[in-house]
Amino acid sequence: MAAISPWLSSPRSFSNPRVSSPYFKTITGPHTLGAKFLPDSRRCTSIHAAISVLDCSNEEQHRISSRDQVGMKRREVMLQIASSVFIFPLAISPAFAETDASEAFRVYKDEVNIFEISIPQDWQVGQAEPNGFKSITAFYPQEASTSNVSIAITGLGPDFTRMESFGKVEAFAETLVSGLDRSWQKPAGVTAKLIDSKASKGFYYIDYTLQNPGEARKHLYSAIGMATNGWYNRLYTVTGQFTDEEAAEQGSKIQKIVKSFRFM
């Protein structure tokens, strides 16, 4: 049976190997080889401290993991917003509209997705394949034209409750447009330039241009806002586009359409 040396109430010199320090007690025996251990109270304190450190470490890792997940979701949403720029209607579908004869505009209402928007009386309404979106609706002239307005709806997680969840409008716009730019590639791809951005009444408005090498420059004007359908939050990206050649005829009209977007 191993013998346990008694606790001493006063300090002792470490020159005598048989004498214990007040901070340690020595256990001797055939299997201990004079190993020294912290007293029970200090061992408990050390264990509690170690557990506390581990708990803090786990909490920090959880916070980092949560931030990473939010960041990934933010990047995913930004990619979907960027891809909505290239949407064009695939099939015409009927829609309920109220006519505003004085302006030759009609009000398109979507009761399911709880929004309304004013469009020119003679414009067509089309539905595109969702392809990762909850819904895509597009509006465009009857005559051949590259001008159009699209509304893409994206589902959001509980971390996104308002537009500021994506950061300030300036940073949001810069991230969106820089993410579209490929002018640095060799050979050069699309050139994207930010013209203006502002926040108003819960929406982020972004004005920018895109130009593929050898093609006409496109102007894009987007209104991006957030609403809930009662179960989860959704991001609405309303984007109007027109080329330099159509700017005089379609520019102000398309901006008016985008600005008319409202939640019902």
UniProtKB/TrEMBL annotation:
Stored SUPFAM superfamilies: Mog1p/PsbP-like
Domain PsbP C-terminal: 104-263
Top-level lineage group: Eukaryota
One family name in Pfam for this protein: PsbP
Family matches, as PANTHER family: PSBP DOMAIN-CONTAINING PROTEIN 3, CHLOROPLASTIC (PTHR31407:SF17), PTHR31407
Annotated protein name in UniProt: PsbP domain-containing protein 3
Organism: Cardamine amara subsp. amara
